[in-house]
Amino acid sequence: MIEPASKQAIERAAALLRRGEVVAFPTETVYGLGADALNPRAAARIFAIKERPHFDPLIVHIGAAEQLAEVAADIPRAARELAAAHWPGPLTLVLAKRDIVPDIVSAGLPTVAVRVPAHPVALDLIAATGRPIAAPSANPFGYVSPTRAAHVAAQLGDRVPLILDGGPCRVGIESTIVSFAADSPTLLRHGVITQEAIEAQIGPVRVAAAGDAIAAPGQLPRHYSPATSLTLIDSPHELTPDLRSGAALLACAPVDDSAGFAAVRILSPTGDLEEAAAALFAAVRDIDELRPTHIYAVRIAPHGIGRAIMDRLRRAAAGRESGIESRES
Ligand code: TXA
Ligand code: MG
Known about the structure:
Blueprint: E1 2-4, H1 7-18, E2 23-25, E3 32-36, H2 40-50, E4 59-61, H3 68-71, E5 72-73, H4 77-86, E6 91-97, H5 103-106, E7 111-115, H6 120-129, E8 133-134, H7 149-156, E9 163-165, E10 176-179, E11 186-189, H8 195-202, E12 206-207, E13 230-233, H9 241-244, E14 248-251, E15 263-266, H10 273-289, E16 295-298, H11 305-317
Parallel strand pairs: 1-9, 4-7, 6-10, 11-12, 13-16, 14-15, 14-16
Antiparallel strand pairs: 2-3, 3-8, 4-8, 5-6, 6-7, 10-11
Helix pairs in contact: 1-6, 10-11
């Protein structure tokens, strides 16, 4: 059931979490499906509800950087600096875990992914629960992340007792993930905190390639997929009237030629990439519901936030352009 995130609703959600139940809640990036991060049986429910494979670890949400040492050990200076600069915010750090974090949360890895979300409802919920909250995005495994309470209800509504509605997510794509599991910091997932910003702060980072053994499953080639096939294009000029007929066009900025498509979605009228990122997943869902014959998405330059957007679009397209079905579809 969706409920506006009033103080009373947050209290009720916290009570459910303390009892080992699962609730959905807003963060600044996407909606999360939360459970008590220190309760393995509660965390197990997340995997069951999402139909998420147990090799895919969860992000642990804490209320403040000061709580980091409760779940993580051996925190390098660069990680502390990133936390100080970006928390609360859309940055997740992967660090050596403490024993208090159950193995199911870390999927058996010796590390734990942690972040402090920048959303008042998420922070109030963590405080009211008095526990860190493990939460992946609140979507069935492999589908686009939800950026509205209604997205969660549409897909998981019958499996989650409470969905706190905190309005649309401001950021709209998942957090940037930086891992300190290896000797040198590794960027596991692009987000609105850009690679450039991170490198300016802590120096060069390695970027995990899809298929890396350490890669997060969010890194699997096909993730965030809509039901409709999606192809990346450089420009709509490539498409004949035949191809356009019945198809949808998705672009970050206005295009000069959008005639003949069944639907056109421009994510930002000014080509602002933060605005485009915030609108991306909701637009993909909207288009998908129209059941077009195909989705054509216009590529953008892969730097800054453009990397994060291109990363999501490529994964949505993957396994289709090449005809190869990936492991998780
Ligand atoms: O913005 C976000 O990060 C959202 C909100 C709810 O906080 N959460 C989110 O969670 O996107 P999820 O589960 O959809 O993606 C988390 C990613 C997964 O790809 C997972 O494999 C990776 O984080 N991850 C978690 N723990 C890890 C670890 N110990 N080592 C490497 N990757 C890890
Ligand atoms: Mg996810």
